[in-house]
Amino acid sequence: xxxxVEFGGDLxxxxxxxxxxxxxxGLTFRNYEMNxxxxxxxxxxxxVSFISSGGTTIHYADSVKGxxxxxxxxxxxxxxxxMNTLRAEDTAVYYCASGYSSSWxxxxxxxxxxxxxx
Amino acid sequence: xxxxTQPPSVSVSPGQTASITCSGDRLWxxxxxxxxxxxxxSPVLVIYQDSKRPSGIPERFSGSNxxxxxxxxxSGTQALDEADYYCQAWDSRMVFGGGxxxxxx
Lengths: 118, 105
Hints:
The complex is a heterodimer.
Chain A lengths: L2 E5 L3 E2 L5 E8 L7 E7 L5 E7 L6 E3 L7 E6 L4 E6 L8 E8 L7 E2 L3 E5 L2
Parallel strand pairs in A: 2-11
Antiparallel strand pairs in A: 1-3, 3-8, 4-5, 4-9, 5-6, 7-8, 9-10, 9-11
Chain B lengths: L8 E4 L5 E6 L8 E6 L6 E4 L13 E6 L2 E6 L8 E8 L3 E3 L3 E5 L1
Parallel strand pairs in B: 1-9
Antiparallel strand pairs in B: 2-6, 3-4, 3-7, 5-6, 7-8, 7-9
């Protein structure tokens, strides 16, 4: 059974930083493209960032470009999201999500809540 | 930036067919996926590459993509199909539609 478990969500002040982690199991992690997708409570899904299976290709949504950094460690079956200069509008549940293709997402984690507030 | 448009809500009677549309410029040229999200749960992939069903997804879920519109069709809709549905495509980045709340009344 594929499991994606996110860690690191917390309450942080505007301008602060946070690092999210995602531990993957039940799949050959190094073969999967990975994404972070967020969802503001009661609202829709917003794609945040993509990293290819080997880590060589990275994309960001315009809303987070220059502030967020995605990375992965295939030896540890782990995905990360470093979030800097956080804003109130970054408040959301952040999902770790995997896809065998870059075109869709096969598996989603349970999500971790990030709240940016003073 | 690329945008996908979905109706905010769709209603269907139990046992009937529900159709949820997703519109985007030249959408026929992109692979469309659909996700189901029940309240309080993570999304689940129900259709990928326009019309393929992952293992474990009931046959009553089907998809199509033509012109500027992709459609998710749920035949013989059941109460447990009541959820939010999101379409998604890739256009140099992943794009989601705004979501459609399916009510089974």
